[in-house]
Amino acid sequence: MNTMRIANRRDFLKKALTGAAVLQAGGGAGLFATAEQGAAPAKSRVVIAHDALLRGTGSTVDSSRMLSLLDRAMQALFDRDRPVEAWRKLVRPGESVGLKVNALGGRGISTNLQLVEAICERLQEAGIKAGDIVVWDRDSDELERVGFHLATGGNRVQCFGTDRVDYEQELVAHGSVGSRLSKILTQRSKLLINLPVLKDHDGAGVTIALKNMYGVIHNPNKYHPNGCDPYVADLNMLPEIRTRMRLTVCDATTAMYEGGPAYKPEHSWKNNALLISQDPVALDYTGWQIIERKRAEMGLKTLEAEGRAPCYIATAADAQHRLGTNDPKRISIVEV
Amino acid sequence: MLCEQDVQDGKSLDLRGERGSLGRRSFLKCALASGAVLGVSELSPPAAAISSEAMQQKQDDAQFTVEAKFYQKLPSLKIKCKLCPRECAVGDRERGYCGVRENRGGTYYTLVHSRVCAAHVDPIEKKPLFHYLPGSLAFSLATAGCNVNCKFCQNWDISQSRPEQIPADYVPPRRVAELAKQYSCPTIAYTYSEPVIFSEFLMDAADAGHEAGIRSIVVSNGYMQEEALRAAYGKMDAVKIDLKAFSESYYRNVVAGQLKPVLESLATLKKMGKWTEIVYLVVPTLNDGDDEFRGLAQWIKANLGADVPLHFTQYHPQYLLKNLPITPVPTLERAKAIADTEGLHYVYIGNVPGHPAQNTYCPQCRKLLVERVGFTASRMLIGKDSSCPSCHHPIPGVWHA
Predict the structure, then answer these.
(1) B401 part of a folded domain
(2) A222 contacts B99? CB cut-off 8 A
(3) Exposure string (b/e) for B252-286, b if CB count within 10 Å is 16 or more?
(4) Chain B: nearest CA to A238, how far in angstroms?
């Protein structure tokens, strides 16, 4: 782990010296992809991929349409003609990949199985062994409740919660945050793909990419005061998270504009979309605006008017954090 | 030095032996070292760790889950916790700040009733309570969780964790009382983590203890709502409050709490007639100013009286606050001198073994009344009439069972 950290730092310094890593939005999240691209994009790209027919005539997401939706999104994000080329921008054979899902909302609003299956399929095509992929959240029971089948060992995609392996004994700290990290993150995920959902949160305003990292630590309950600000930003600054984060794929197939974080069917809508970015701040900002638009459509006040605007997003973008950008002028939204 | 770290709040002991043998070894080492120094006091036999076998086997989570006592139901399956001043508004399937209370479908539950993650037999001086049954033993226990997040916490591994992250044993209230009796402890002490957050268990254990002739004491931050405090700590026979500082900024930045409610709790305890002692952990540069010591002493004298024991204790780097040195002894002596000057009668210095300010002296004739070495009262001269044997000045406290 230390070796990897040093290598990343060297890469960064090298690029900084040559001017290639000028404030690459997404901070360390996109180091690998950026290195191959050769130059950092001027704007952070957030791809919103829609498919009105994602569920066909039923309520369940169609697997093949989900795969197709994911492909369109990834190709648009990385400007590639073939899906596998896009994934090869992110991963290399031999790497272990953690897929951090969000299973707190039960079957109503959690990361879709079909999305996870699609990502696993493409990762394997890109050269990642099935056994090197781990689908995880904090608790195995919650994963099962959503419909994931737990799997440990063997040459298949792994799936279990931190409860199975515990948290590191050592405390890590940044700013206001001091926590123990999931061993799945530290020991099983050389790189991390974040798979949050898009929903309202009664305390934080919204919970999307950045806040999904609360599922990585042993004491998330300590970091909910003050709308989770600056805790969310500080947490995402931890090197163990920041250096691993490569991509966020937000499952916005079902989204919630009010009443979160627990699932409230009366406040959810079938959005049939994915949001993808290497900049978690830009993605969170974009997701927040989607929720605000839905709130306006439903005749609700803005989150700011309710006194719960997600201020942590701006904190994540500030000079002390630089985890990405929340400036709409520096966000390029690509709809496919 | 490890022993000294343990002095602060007491070191938790893994009942199931799964959190590493170091804790157990270090605890026993402390106990043995203490005994060696003291020559094993007549008043206080060496502390003993409770073996895991003495407890029942761990049960499933349902056994620890009991509806909470202090909360208010809100629309949309939300609740508002009324246990501490934080008043967490908790949505369905969410937990409060303490991490040990969960909203399940609009009903709030404690997840730590009878869920004991640490238990020791400690000298009562370790709490510290200096004016309450000196030389006696306290059957001391804790569950996971805390309603603040002190950056210097000695027991953060249990206080800042969720209950399911820590090995624990099912020890229901009657069993607690039985164990206290079995280990010849006249009191049960709720300590180590933060008893506010296991109030329901504490109340039931205190009732079970009283039925068996065992008293109860609590070591707490006092960050609690008045109704809950009256209900829960009303069942206590003595209380020790950790007053972390005498400034709101320190409470906000270092403790993640508030000073005002703690002062209100102290005043309430006074009204309730509870025997109360105060500990003030002196952290270099953060809460060690003369004005702060003076303000603290003046507030105590004005609101609680000059007879409330005040313990200035030594900080050791821990948890998230490791960049400061151990509190110099002269700083503690300066704090004591200021409090003495302000007219407090019983000001102690803690975590400094062998310091003369660990002893109790008569405020009138200055004669030695209780001599302490380490955690042990090695000489106790206060008579049955709770007065100084030399000048007969009444000495406040509970000196004899």
Answers:
(1) no
(2) yes
(3) eebbbbbbebbbbbbebbeeeebbbbbbbbbbeeb
(4) 15
Tokens of B235: 């069942």
> A109 — phi, psi (to 5°)?
-150, 80
Which residue in B233, B242, B243 sits closest to B269, CA to CA? B233
User: Could you tell me if B256 lies within 8 Å of chain A, comparing CB atoms?
Assistant: yes
Whether B236 and B262 share a structural domain: yes
The proportion of chain B whose per-residue pLDDT surpasses 70, expressed as a percent, equals: 85
State pTM to two decimals. Answer: 0.85
B59 CB contacts (<8 Å, ≥6 apart)?
Answer: B170
Q: Domains of chain A, with CATH numbers?
A: 25-335 (3.40.50.11440)
pLDDT tens, A243-257?
Answer: 999 999 999 999 999
Q: Do A262 and B149 touch (CB under 8 A)?
A: no
**Could you read off the pLDDT of B340-382 as tens digits, one per residue?**
999 999 999 999 999 999 999 999 999 999 999 988 899 999 9
Domain count, chain B: 2
Within 8 A of A164 by CB-CB distance, chain B residues are none
Domain endpoint, select from B72, B88, B110: B110
CB atoms near residue B16 (< 10 Å): 14
CA dist A309 to A140, A205, B41, Å? 32, 5, 61
Amino acid in position B274: K
Residues 6 or more apart whose Cβ sits within 8 Å of residue B384:
B400
Assign 3-state DSSP to chain B and report helix, strand, coil percentages, each to 5. 35, 20, 45
* Closest Cβ opposite residue B91 in set A166, A171, A262: A262
Instruction: Note whether residue B127 is domain-resident.
Output: yes
Is residue B265 domain-resident?
Answer: yes
Structural domain including B74 reads: 61-110
The CATH number covering residue B42 comes to: 3.20.20.70
- Please answer whether residues B5 and B316 qualify as being in contact, where contact means their C-beta atoms are separated by less than 8 angstroms: yes
